[in-house]
Amino acid sequence: MNQLTRRNRTTIGMIRFAIAAALMAGGFTAEAAPTPASSEAELIAILQGDGPEADKALACKFVAVNGSAAAVPAVAALLKNPRLASWARIALEAIPGDAASAALRDAAGTLDGRLLAGVITSLGVRGDAAAVPMLSGKLAAEDAEVAAVAACSLGRIATPEAGLLLAGALEKAAAPARLDAVAEAAVLCAANLHAAGKSEEAVALYGVVRAADVSEQRRAEAIRGTIIAKAREGIPLLVETLASPTKRLANMAVFTARDLGRGDAADPALAAEVDQAVLKQVEFAAAGGRLDRAAILIDVLAERNAGAARESVVAGLAAMSAAANPKPLRLAALEALGKVGNAAVVGPLLVAAADEDSDIADTARAAVSALSGDAVDREIVARLQGADAKLLPVLVELVGRRRIAAVAALLPLASHPDEKVRVATIVALGPTVDLANLDVLVVAATAPKSQAEGEAARAAVREASVRMPDRDDCAAKLAAALAKAPAEAKVMLLDVIGEVGGTKAVATMDAAARSGDEALADAATRLLGKWMTADAAPVLLSLATAEPGGKYKTRALRGYIRIARQFVLPDAERAEMCRRVLAAAKEDADRKAVLEILVRYPSAATLAVAEEAAKLPGLEGEAVKAANEIRAKVQPAKKAG
Amino acid sequence: MPRASSGSLSRRSLIRGGLAAGAAAAAPMIIPSSALGLDGAVPPSERIVVGGIGIGRRGEYDLGCFLQQADVQFAAVCDVKENRRNHVKGVIDKHHGSTACATYKDFRELLDRDDIDAVLIATGPNWHGLMAMLAARAGKDVYCEKPCTKNIAETLVHRDTMNRCGTVFQAGTQRRNLPHFAFACELARTGRLGKLKRVYAHPAGMRATTSGWLPEEPAPDSQIDDWDMYLGPAAWRPFNARTLADGFNFEKGGGLVGGGVLEWGSHCADLCQWAVDDRPPPVEYAPPKNDELVCRYADGCELVFREKGWIPLGSCPVRFEGTDGWVEAGDSGKLVLSSPELLAGRKVEEIGGYPATFHVRDFLDCVKTRGKPKGNAEAACNAHLACHAANIAIYLGRPIKLDLATYTFIDDEAANRLRSEARREPWHA
């Protein structure tokens, strides 16, 4: 293909300007530089000409996308140029067909040092099996860098022949650095062989690496590869390595165990055997006093079984959580049970949840909270009946933490004689109560039996109110309660209504602001001043322009200005709001704030308001300046339109 | 009516599995030293020795997050710029109250140190992918700033290398460890929004670019600024001070398809990927139209890079839409929900300003347990694949289709040639 296709030329032509601009910004020669639309012949001419190196470099980039074998000779000629060889390789790695590979192989016979290393790397990237004999020869090159990249390219090409060559090189290499480079390539080769279905060859090659005097890291990689390639037959090696006293090897085994038999290549039988092997290793580590290692392995089990745990795993973890075991083991097992357990472990977890040791109790409660399944919910609710004084508040707490819809079971406990139970019930109702029963919390919040109960109820009312699906119904209910509430509770309820928001909430704020109750008016204007929706604007303007002497007129006006400044509004509406502020504002700061808003949102509508403001005494100069700024921003858009 | 969330479901409980059914995958448990009878002290054997590479402005922020952790010993710093090496050494030594932090110009010397467990890579994006792989082969765990790779081929090799080497890898996608983003993703992932129809990411720019060749200037002494090492895997070009100073943008993405959606997409598209349960990336990519670039997953759900139309919730906004509701979140720490019922009685802690502290902690915990941090290699791989493929669609200006079996583009040779780019000799992975 000597010319770019018509389709490509058209497509590229559409983006030519953008790309050219980007490239020029990057400093490529502007005039005669190649572009995405240059024909292959033009690019070749640039590559073979006497023009700037930068143009040749850029030509290589375009050849990489659209060039053919025809461009190969011109590109390959640059491989011996230290300044342009890397650009040439960009093209030669990308051009399909044997011409590019052949050019790289030819260059390997003439180059040395870094440039030779480069072409060897490119042959590996291209997976050029024809380069294997040449690469074989380079494994023993005097230049260690060349030898290393030759090994790496063989690892990438990954034919059985390449594997044998790497195995042979491992047996011959002497210097540790060279040995490790070959070992790395061999591991890569083995992984590629396994991916290609040649698991036996892979295992054999991994075996050579493991037997060689290589670094711990290479050995760890070979062990991992062996375990994966051997599947069920690899489990003994996994077990052996999990117990290794060498930290790097043991860590690699843990890393491997997390995924073995799972994921894209899930193998249930293998996964079950791995679970059993890991369970045994937990016991082994715990018996040896290696509690940190046992805890990590427990976490491996939890990760492997998240969502669908095997019964044997759950039972094993439950046994490890028993009180007779060391605390670190119990903590790890309890947390794991929360991830993989089911209704069957609620009992043992509840025992731990009432433990005297707060670490154990907290972890167990978190675990029950995290258990999945409706059966767990039913089990907890069923246990409310007949629970003793120690367990009852724990169960109630768990109903709340799991957000179980068990309001009917909780309501009687709101008047329980034990304050602990009452407080736990109020807390649990926060995330569970429905609108029909919200009054229970309102009463507890406005007429508490104790300080602790009052604090819990105030938080619960808020928590329940903000999640109600119909905010206006909720605000109406709270407003009704507000009317009857003791004076000291009114502001608290008004705050909650403010958080609920909505039409009814705004109306309630309006009424409170005009109620004549100083505390309520203060709270209502404060809340309206930070309202999260623009529907508070009319009320704020009304309050700001109320009869003279209103204490919170300035606060209301500034709340109105805030909405004009911060919220997404149609241009005309925002401009009209600004006009109204200019009419109502008594202070220069407020009028200047309006000018800032007008400039911030330039439009024909805000320009008109700025021009009107220029006629206001004391504002002329700044308003004219604002109008000019708006005009400068608006007018180009008009021309374009 | 949308409503902003408030309240205080803590980051810890949210991130570490304090939620009920459908909770985000929890980080592994670390036994507190108090449970081991150590009264909260970190024994030397539990300390993680870290080295930093390319610690510029962003890196210094990350460094601060590492130094906040009691179990971190920062032992070395490497930079091609002498002034940065010395400055960062000063920061580290001051923190540790010693003069022990070693400095290196060549990161390979730092990687050769057996006592270093993990590295923080915060170079420019030119080096991220290759350096992370070289660190992995040296047996180091890696926290690496984003974007993590330059192209599709490097992304796949990067993922495979992390797996083969048993590396704990954390991409610098710290929003995965913030409660409001985690909650939003959980709503999408667990079906609370119904069947997912669209996930939106803010790209903050959709123009493909390539790094240029500025006029040659006299090169400084390599001990002061090592230009050859700065270029690293990038194709050769002469020394230029502007290029040296702009490591943040130099070779951000390779070939002719750098820039584009990659810078912010590696955050926003990453969150979208989390929302769709870290599945493989979209299979279809259309070029931008009306400030939107639409990609389609195999099940029809769309990933939309969108410039406009966001609720003002700060930078890096994302939005997830399902048949039953939607959620939008941004860097202010706030959420907006289509219905308060989506909260289901829960409260989500608002943490604005996208701190990386929790993300660093997640990484360090996983270094100890060999677990998978939130920004693990597989997750980062899928998000970066989506960004690189989107950039190819931008450059070509035509729709492209990705085959998930081979990660090649279907019947589009030019797109396939843009999947990879040769590294400058002698660098290789």
Question: What is the topological layout?
Answer:
The complex is a heterodimer of chains A (641) and B (429).
Chain A: H1 6-25, H2 40-48, H3 53-66, H4 72-76, H5 85-94, H6 98-108, H7 113-125, H8 132-138, H9 144-157, H10 160-172, H11 176-195, H12 199-211, H13 216-230, H14 235-242, H15 247-259, H16 268-287, H17 291-305, H18 311-320, H19 327-340, H20 346-353, H21 358-370, H22 374-384, H23 392-401, H24 407-410, H25 419-429, H26 438-446, H27 451-465, H28 471-484, H29 487-500, H30 503-513, H31 518-528, H32 537-544, H33 553-566, H34 571-584, H35 588-600, H36 604-613, H37 620-640
Chain B: E1 3-4, H1 11-15, E2 48-53, H2 57-67, E3 72-78, H3 82-96, E4 102-104, H4 107-111, E5 118-121, H5 125-137, E6 141-144, H6 152-165, E7 169-171, H7 179-189, E8 196-201, E9 208-209, H8 227-231, H9 241-245, E10 258-259, H10 262-275, E11 284-285, E12 292-296, E13 302-306, E14 318-322, E15 325-329, E16 335-337, H11 357-369, H12 377-396, E17 400-403, E18 408-409, H13 413-417
Helix pairs in contact in B: 5-6, 6-12, 7-10, 10-12
Structural write-up:
The complex is a heterodimer of chains A (641) and B (429). By secondary structure, chain A is mainly α. Among the domains of chain A are: 158-256; 261-372; 382-456. Helix content of chain A is 71%, strand content 0%. In chain A, helix 6 runs antiparallel to helix 7. By secondary structure, chain B is of the alpha/beta class. Chain B folds into 2 domains: 1-22 and 174-219 and 230-352 and 377-422, Dihydrodipicolinate Reductase, domain 2 (2-Layer Sandwich), CATH 3.30.360; 23-173, Rossmann fold (3-Layer(aba) Sandwich). Helix content of chain B is 32%, strand content 16%. Chain B is built from 13 helices and 18 strands. Chain B has helices at 11-15, 57-67, 82-96, 107-111, 125-137, 152-165, 179-189, 227-231, 241-245, 262-275, 357-369, 377-396, 413-417, and strands at 3-4, 48-53, 72-78, 102-104, 118-121, 141-144, 169-171, 196-201, 208-209, 258-259, 284-285, 292-296, 302-306, 318-322, 325-329, 335-337, 400-403, 408-409. A 10-stranded mixed β-sheet of chain B has the order 1-16-15-14-8-13-12-11-17-18. In chain B, strand 17 and strand 18 (408-409) form a beta hairpin. In chain B, helix 5 (125-137) packs parallel to helix 6 and helix 7 (179-189) crosses helix 10. Chain B is globular and about 60 Å long. Residues 1-29 and 33-37 of chain B have low confidence and may be disordered. The interface between A and B is large, with 107 and 79 residues.
